[in-house]
Amino acid sequence: MSNNLTGDYDAVLLVSVTKINGILATLHQNGADPDASPVFPHSEKTRLGDPPKLLHPPLSDYAGWFNELLPAIDGGGDPGTQGQKLSDKAPPGAARILLQAYNDLQAARADEIVRPVPLNCRGTVEVQLSAPSIALPPGSTSEVTIYVNVRARFLPDPNTPALPEPIHGLVAATYSAKTQYVYGYGGRKTILQVEVPADDSKIQFTSAANTGLGPPDLQQIAIQIRKALREGFEPINVELPADFRFSQFKGLGNALALPLRLVPPLDLPASALGTVTNNFLNADFSIAISRDYFQTQFQPTIDNLMQFTQSFDVGYSIFTVTYHVSIKSVNLEWHDGYLDLVVKAKATASYAPDFDDITVRQRLTITVDSLFQFFFLRASDDDLSISGIWDFIKGRVRSGIISARDNALPPAQVQINNELTKNRTQINGGLSAIDDSASARFSAVRITPDGLILDGAIPSKFRGPPVVAFEETKDGTAFTAFESWIPGGRIDRFEWSWVKQAHLETIWGGEVVTALEDHRFLFPKPPQISNASQICLRIHGIQVNQQGFAIEIAGGTACAIPTPVVAWEMPSWSDPMPTPVWLPAVALDAVLEEQTIGHANVLAHARPGEAAANSVVHFADPKMDQPLEKFGKVLARRPGVPLVLIVVLPPKTFAGRRREVEAKLGSLGKEFNGHLILTEDYTGSWARTFDAKQVPSTYLMNTKGEFVWKQEGTFGADAIAAALEKYLTVPRAIRFRRLSLTTQPGERAPNTSLTDDTGLRLSLRKLRGQPILLNFFQAWSPPSIRELQRLQILQDKGGENAPVIVAVSGDPKADVLTDVRRKYKLGFALVPDPNGSVARSFGVHCWPTTLSIAVDGRINGIQVGEQHDHGPVVKGPAASPTAPARHAS
């Protein structure tokens, strides 16, 4: 007889589909770790249109040859006609071989050959994949639908047609999953088979809103997705553990039901799944144990109670009677919230009335200690009642019954714990194969008239923050955010912003432009990007948390500043030559040094001869008698040749206000079409590099990075003009190239050994298991100091939950760190790096630079410069300028 909770089975495990999706999100997050298994990738580069890997080499070669000839075959859609036409053109012996190969290919790929899309669509596909989620068709016992959001970029091979764009939408694939028993050496094995659907209707692609793709476009994309899944996904045959007892499943709304037969016959026909209809889920998972099965486990306790006997004397007025108590029956009665242990007994005596209908009723409850995962079978004396015997005798019977109960229940409690621990072990065995951070824990027990229900939680791994990473495409025409992702989630929108200079006659009058992209992770460079001081990316999307619920999330802004366009023949680490990185739209009355967000080394990533510009380096005298205006007149004589004009200003110039400094500098004029860099000689490295002992003085470097001319102690316009005429050459195209580190988000941080200013030895490897903020700073750099102060606030606010903060200083003077710690009251580790070896191991060329390192030792964020936002997030569809703003968080 079927049980209302468990049907024809002894037990049923219900797992929340929401929680399953949370576990799948963890697999997606694990995709960043090459050592983790199993994982679900967040990005994938794959080939499209290559011969199927499942074909043996000769047939694979034939398939590639055939696909190349297909456009020239005049056989319509009839496979036989196509094959015959090919064989007709070959010698008789070869014709038979070709026709046989064609027939073999048809047998292997029949469903693909006749597709209404050219089979020679071949190229590389970059695919961003969201965390997968599942859904179970109501009542399904063999199919699971998997949903994945994809965003793809197709790079076709030469002479290959492109696919419709943008490829952005939802892939839904309904897979079949079933178990099969295989008998062989060692006994019976249980095999889980998962197969890709052959039915096209079970692999669907739905485009995201507003992509503009029509039905033919969607059909063509869907065909390629089906092709990729079928060629790249082999049928899975997984041998389940020998003691794994959950071999069938059924969809029950928001739950996956896994029925379990614990007593013979262990195998029930598939039709028995029809009896599982009760969705009793009340947590991450719930296990129902049928009343009948529980009672079989409780039977030893009943048997022990049946052996109970008791004798006691009852004194009457003139004589004493000895009563003998024995048990007639013991039963469990099931109610909502409790059990009644009902004992029927009798008491007999010679020469006195017998009591044949004594009823002892003991209420039982079951609780669980959520910490120690131990179940308690509780029986209170207050919940014990006796009827069917005189009141003055009850006390004697009661004491004996309590004694017998107290002896019988502990073994029953042990039996319950053993059985329920087996269930938890089974669940954890399955979970550990998928997510080693997940562990089932019981939290509550429900007693119903039909059986016992145990509710529990499945805590799983923390969620990492969004990873914002972008780089330039190989051709330099765009930025790609292919490696950006949200662990355990999906990206819905890319928010690009850049600082556009109004005109190069001033470097402080820029504005921020924001462009939003929903469908592509590729962002073509706008025309004005060549003069941009930085470009930033922020991502918006959804992250599935540990509980399986989707929450909105946005990634912190990651900004890139351009690599200086000079390429001088000197190593970037020899003597760093810093230049300021500015906030956009500096107000006329703003103090300039307060508007810097960092200092970048002009020698960063120097590659002599690679897209270098002619460089003019001018050391201005303290009088500042409008040097820019003078250069503007000289450069107007030779327009059209891009160059970089670097003006090295006297120390403390930027302590003044923009209005005052611009008045002293003058204007280059609108004819100047190169790059202007204004810097102070912060560390004296500029003067050392050029051996500049007099001011003003001017130096010229050509496009090969060679020093070719100088003028010291004066400003001779004619001499400078003649030198430019003689030495200037037209460089190759100069483009925005981001200043990047040698380590990127998603990669494991180098295991650098550090020794702080107190002598404490640190190692990034030993710090794993806790989040780390690794900062690189220079004590002379105002934005570096502001960033240190921000990190101290972060530590103070975070308390015990604050990340480990380590700041590395490149200052060569040993006492600088002591002064910095004392002056700014810093409580985290400060590490001297006078030779720059630690900074070089990460490829740091801008100060400050802060890396966020996750608990697994992987970099999940890089902040170049002081943390700042360009302005408020733009929610509209169009690009629009926003006001700059600095913030600390």
Describe the structure using short key phrases.
33% strand; 889 residues; 8-stranded antiparallel β-sheet; elongated; 6-stranded antiparallel β-sheet; 14 helices; alpha+beta
Summarize the structure.
By secondary structure, the chain is an alpha+beta fold. The strands form nine sheets. Strands 2, 3, 4, 5, 6, 7, 8 and 9 form an eight-stranded antiparallel β-sheet that branches. The protein has a six-stranded antiparallel β-sheet with strand order 10-11-1-12-19-18.
Task: Tell me what you see in this structure.
The chain starts with 10 loop residues before the first strand and ends in a 7-residue tail after the last strand. Residues 111-119 and 870-889 have low confidence and may be disordered. 22% of the residues lie in helices and 33% in strands. Strands 2, 3, 4, 5, 6, 7, 8 and 9 form an 8-stranded antiparallel sheet that branches. A 6-stranded antiparallel sheet has the order 10-11-1-12-19-18. It has 889 residues and is an alpha+beta fold. It is elongated. The chain is built from 14 helices and 43 strands. Strand 18 and strand 19 form a beta hairpin.
